[in-house]
Specification:
Elements lengths: L2 H15 L6 E7 L4 H16 L5 E7 L4 H6 L7 E6 L2 E5 L6 H14 L5 H21 L3 H14 L4 H13 L3 H9 L3 H4 L2 H15 L7 H9 L4 H13 L3 H14 L7 H13 L4 H15 L1
Parallel strand pairs: 1-2
Antiparallel strand pairs: 1-3, 3-4
Length: 298
């Protein structure tokens, strides 16, 4: 190996291999005379810049000036684009020539590889804070949850769970107009997240089941006439608005058991909305689903 080749290897080790120990390095093999290389270059640079906080680094290798390195990678044509992680090639990205194609590959790799990044560190920092906000919501302290999620939003303005928690906290405190406005102003990309769908369900549920200051008249009406399903439905909505999900589920299930298609299945529809708000993976929802199935198919 000549001194020039040794220098080339050392430069490649320093500029590409070492960064790949913790980052995902996109290697762009190109040359000054290559038209397709010049067309692809700006797209690679833009995507790499957009993904920089996620641990993506772009390394450009001029094959004319680095013939020895190009030969080691058996470069037959250019542009050739590889992705390297921890010194190993993990993807051939040469076929990706558009912004969207590159992003699809990078998103897949980011899910599969333990890449260190500012974004991952930021998520790790705010996860305990999100849990704190969720705990406040679960304890019925909506005002505290609003304060917590508002502060987290300043730290992580693009985190869907933060926006979802804030909206649900607004709903919990009866600030439905504010929740509606907040959702309307979300970035469309954030609005597609499942956490936002849960927040929208919470808002829709609150709008269809407004809070009742005193449930005792509804309770008395149901006790006086258990066959009055409209009164039981109103009571269930009131219980739901009061965050008494156990009582609400019992009342809705009682209506379904009495007449499953009453009011075009209104009780079942409202119960399913409640499930979505609580979270479909929540153990409580699983238990209530079993009760619903027993009524419908038992």
């Amino acid at each position: 190996m000549s001194p020039a080749e040794k220098d080339a290897v050392e430069s490649f080790r320093r500029d590409v291999v070492e960064p790949s120990m913790t980052k995902l390095v996109i290697i762009d093999f190109w040359a000054e005379w290559c038209g397709p290389c010049k067309a692809l270059g700006p797209t690679l640079e833009k995507v790499a810049a957009d993904y920089a906080d996620k641990g993506i680094v772009l390394a450009k290798v001029d094959t004319d000036k680095n013939q020895f390195i190009a030969a080691q990678f058996q470069i037959k044509s250019i542009p050739t684009v590889y992705a390297m992680f921890q010194g190993q090639l993990v993807a051939d990205m040469t076929s990706a020539r558009t912004d969207s194609q590159l992003r699809v590959i990078l998103d897949q790799l980011l899910k599969q590889l333990p890449i260190e990044s500012e974004a991952n560190e930021a998520v790790a920092e705010i996860e305990p804070l999100i849990a704190m906000g969720e705990e406040a919501l679960a304890d019925g302290d909506g005002e505290r949850a609003i304060s917590i999620f508002r502060q987290i939003a300043e730290m992580a303005p693009d985190h869907p769970q933060v926006h979802a928690g804030f909206v649900r906290a607004l709903v919990a405190t009866g600030q439905l107009d504010e929740a509606t406005d907040w959702l309307a102003n979300l970035d469309p990309a954030i609005a597609k997240d499942p956490a936002i769908h849960r927040a929208k369900a919470a808002l829709a549920l609150a709008q269809s089941a407004p809070a009742v200051d005193d449930l005792s008249p509804l309770i008395a009406a149901v006790q006086a006439n258990p066959d009055d399903l409209a009164a039981r439905f109103a009571l269930a909505n009131g219980q739901m608005a009061a965050n008494d999900r156990d009582a609400a589920a019992d009342t809705f299930l009682g209506i379904i058991a009495a007449e499953r298609d009453w009011n075009e299945g209104a009780a079942r529809a409202q119960l399913l909305k409640l499930f979505e708000v609580v979270g479909l993976e929540d153990p409580w929802v699983s238990g209530q689903r079993r009760r619903l199935s027993a009524i419908l198919f038992g």
